[in-house]
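Sample 1 of the test manifest.
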Amino acid sequence: MKRRLVVVGNGMAAGRTVEEILERGGADQFDITMFGDEPYGNYNRIMLSHVLSGEEDESGIFLNDLSWYEENGITLRAPVRITRIDRFAKVVDGDDGSSTPYDVLVVATGSRSFIPPMEGVFRPDGSLLDGVLGFRSIDDTREIVRLARLHEKAVVIGGGLLGLEAARGLQSHGVHVEVLHAAGHLMNQQLDAAGGACLLTSVEALGIDVRLNARSTAVTGDDHVTGVILKDGTEIPCDLVVVAAGIRANTDLAVTSGFSVERGIVVDDSMATVDDPDVFAVGECAQHRGEVYGLVAPIWEQARVLASRLTGSDAEYHGSRVTTKLKVAGVDVASMGITAPERDDDEFVVFSEPRRGVYKSVIIRDDRLIGATCVGDVKKVAFLLQAFDRGLPLPEERVGLLFDLGTAAAEPSVDELPDDTQVCNCNGVSKGALVKAVADGCKTVPAVMDCTRAGKGCGSCKSLVTKIVEWAAGDDMRVDPAEHYYVPGIPLAKPELMTAITEQRLYSVSAVFAALAPGGTEDAKSKMGLTSLLRTMWPQEFVDERDGRFINDRVHANIQRDGTFSVVPQMKGGVTSVEQLRTIADVAEKYRVPMIKLTGGQRIDLLGVPKEDLPKMWADLDMPSGYAYGKSFRTVKTCVGSDFCRFGLGDSTALGVAIETRFQGIESPGKVKMAVSGCPRNCAESLVKDIGVVAVEGGRWEIYIGGAAGAHIRKGDLLVTVDTPEEVLTISGRFLQYYRENAKWLERTYAFVPRIGLERIRDVVVADSDGMAADLDARMQQTVEGYRDPWKEGREPAVPGQFRTALPLISLPQVPVRDGSTALGGRAGRSVATDPRRLP
Amino acid sequence: MILGPVDEIPPGEGRAYTVQGRTLAVFRLRSGALKAFPAACPHSGGPLADAQIDENVLICPLHLNTWDLTTGCSRSGQPDLEVIGVREVAGQIVFSP
């Protein structure tokens, strides 16, 4: 029978603890009930300053929305405040009159804004004077935003991290802000005086007034605040006061219920209260070995330990080393360990450039880094953090801890990249955006990629994206098991998936989802990959479903950025004729094709064709498709070869035509580009193709595989040298089939070949070490025989409205019209007469 | 207002319809449910009727941005899509804003 786990609190610590419990299979052990004071799901309090400044929408800060509780079978009771824990009866009482029994209780009541003693701040009923607010919750933030719009002068009490963030946020609403800080320098908890002075320069440069050594003793105003009075009698008029003078653990419940409470609820290394082994405390309300933590990293550690304990492991919490690295009001600040030397023999190295707002200091004891502060320049922080955490050896020249000297590292490490570095050049995603996605809760590479779209263009940045996510998530990094799946929607790697499809004789994409997807749920992102795989596996029996295809494969043309398509007639080996050129010219004229261009694969591309014109154009062209779209075998680029070229050693053109004829239209996990060169001068660039063939002296042909000259550049590996063109067809076909059956979806040969290993591939496709060559050849032959020109669908559409326009009647980005006579500056917009949208 | 027969849209696909001066992308889910949104992707005007869909999401064909088919909420950081009322009556797609 399941035990009853009750969690008092629904903040970040509570949410994280429950997440960790679920991850450890805790849903089978516990019936979980969570009590929240606020009427919301679980949100990221750290992001409130971004909500205040308007950089983030409120909806963007939720860690778990209400559906998460439902999906995980968690009972969320909010807003209900727990008023008493009866640990003898094992019951918690709520302010809604409820009594809830528990077997295990977790107290995660967090903390609240500390309101320093000031005259006039509270009204007789105990509530805050109008216009005076804490900065702790969504409700606080909403109210601050509302008031900031109505008022002109705000005072922030507290010049720590939260106070400065609040000041910056208020300023973004056009309010004049003055920060009152009781200590002698800003962020005195984290920075030494010189560091604080540097930060002061930067904060004041933003237009925020700061008053140091300013102890607030009273607020004025009868109904609404009118000013703040300092200890020295100075009165600062204002109409809004935000108090950010620190936090205090919410311990009232624990105190009144008889638990040991000092600065927080006292817990041991298992996060259990010292008074009751069945009652635990976690987060900002907990005090462990005398420390109460107000930073997120230690709280995550506590949540992990507690979840492990509750689900049956022996984890222990031994406290956290506190380091901070953040942007305060736009200024980079990092600190770790102590902020000032404590012993006479502590080494203290300082660099200060106050005008530029840069300050760095390190404190070293016995050759170990025990403290560091950086303001305004945090380039060295990654190294400092590691040296601090792991006790790395320090450079003899201590200045090397503050600056990079002389020889630069081979490449900048991830942590040294500035936040605004553009990582994904296709979708314009910066390092900062990736880090933010991690901070917002994405803990796997695919999740970050989905959320930011990084790596979703050409994919060449994926390895850097992975490094950044690993760095940003640190110990929180999770491996998405889906990385090993063939497609994301079916939890099986390719071999298991193929076995299941074969055994259960699944011929259609929908049948695969029904039989193998969790809950039988469809997944759009998996459909193309499954279609391709099923075609490969069942060349004859495959049941085509139109929604299993990307639009290019539904209309057999390449979609362009304005929603029109490009049409490429087949031109095998790049060889054409007068008739073909004339026909293409006539068709281009008839349909007013906005641009005619040679493709990278030596074919003629007719660009800017509306979808509804495709069938008529194909009929007029009366040529087969040239395969410039889809994940399939594309074209074979050729050089002139031995017929005309004075250096030619082999008839590259004839072989190119033969290859293209044989493999036309064959689907594959990624697109496959080929080339045949008539001599080692390689005019057809065969060494950077998925399959490249080169004629060499003696009538022989070299076959290269795994080359690429796109987003990735890789010279192909020499697979084998053969004696005849027929052998080229056999070996390249066998390799192609092996690749089709073994590559992951969207895995190009440049990744596939190194992954499998050249030797292994050579064993299989050349030496036939596994005895599967004949089968590969036979399956390829079956596929070749199943070829049908897709453009035949022009005459007999596969489904109703297959070629119906999808373009909306609004202005879309216009694709420029160019002809050979216009230079770069001579582009013209498409004229109305040729606008494919046919504006009414 | 009738847009046309439901059979014009194969299950799992979308088609564009023009009504009252605007173009809608109407989708027919495998379950038979109809969903409709404005036809242009708010990111860069992509033709959403050419999108790929499953039971839950719609994926723009140009840059693969995704939206929730039920709520129109973006799942990839783009503006949300307005959900447009359509339903099936006697085999016809009926626009009912």
